[in-house]
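Q: Sequence in, structure out?
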Amino acid sequence: MSTMPMSADPANEVLTAIQGRLGVIILNRPKALNALNLAMVDQLDAVLARWAGDPAIDAVLIRSASERAFCAGGDMRSIGTLPDRAERMVLGRAFFGAEYRVNHRINTFPKPFIALINGIAMGGGLGISIHGSHRVVSEDLRMAMPETVLGLFPDVGGSWFLARCPGMIGRYLALIGPQIGAADALTAGLATHHVRLAAFEGVVADLATAGRLDHAAVDAIIAAHAIELHGGMLGERQADITRLFSGTDLAAAAAAIEAAAPDAEWIAEAHAVIGRASPTSLHATWRRMVESQGQSIERVLSDDFRMAVRMVGGHDLAEGVRAILVDKDQSPRWDPPTLEAVTHAAIDALLAPFGEGHLEWSSGEAVTS
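A: Exactly. Output:
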């Protein structure tokens, strides 16, 4: 086996190596739980673009250097704390443009893409893992898409992979953002294998010493370390989730959840989240989950880009960052403050094409509308 030494950006937040025929990426920003900043996603984009066409690399693996977290998401604090709306949108264009190119590269990667996902994995952390062909989760997994309580929505193509969950599980995960473990990640189809964290090193070693790493070989190597897992809560609650989250009307779903709240703790939690999340975020998330079904990943990411750039420039993301991440008073003052006050026209405006001369997202370079 040939092994190339680790390389990294100046801050050592993304490490890369070639081990045998395996390209390895290690997220190494432990104090921030590997939250993605612009420098990190730029490097990921460059590495994946290079390795996709490198004949010496059969497969790519991404993992964390920290036992606490795979990736806690995008670094929204750095964007949301900027006082000027225009500055937030400029940074949002740069960050989301690069991040979504990475998501698209992984979704369409021509080789096996293996994510070893441990601990906290949320938001943007799912964008750099769930789009891949092999999603291996450990027993300590805490996976979620909690954007609605922060004033955003499950972006990074979240509606693309959440729409593929069984029944209405994806809508439940998108709107309510509960933390789920390994068994539920498997039930939802977000994970492909369960491997204990202590066995991650063995998976990497076996992949690194394999003579070839096509999809069948990768499947066999991971399966040799995988443990069958049962339990979780999504399967047993699927019928109720489908009953509460079906249809095309958010108001009806919210009313059904409110009426059912005393029935079970998880429904009461859903009711509480509907009450404290950003009303605009809830409407935006519902729209994305309903309308993105059957759409291509390119269309989903294009719509995500428009919506995300506008939302980081709006009131609620900055207010959510203040209340949840900065002051931590957990009392955001949303605008509009209620579900009823959010209009269809307001959500339409979030998705509308940018005006002449403004950059739209594309899977390659940004294009001008």
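The chain has one domain: 7-368.
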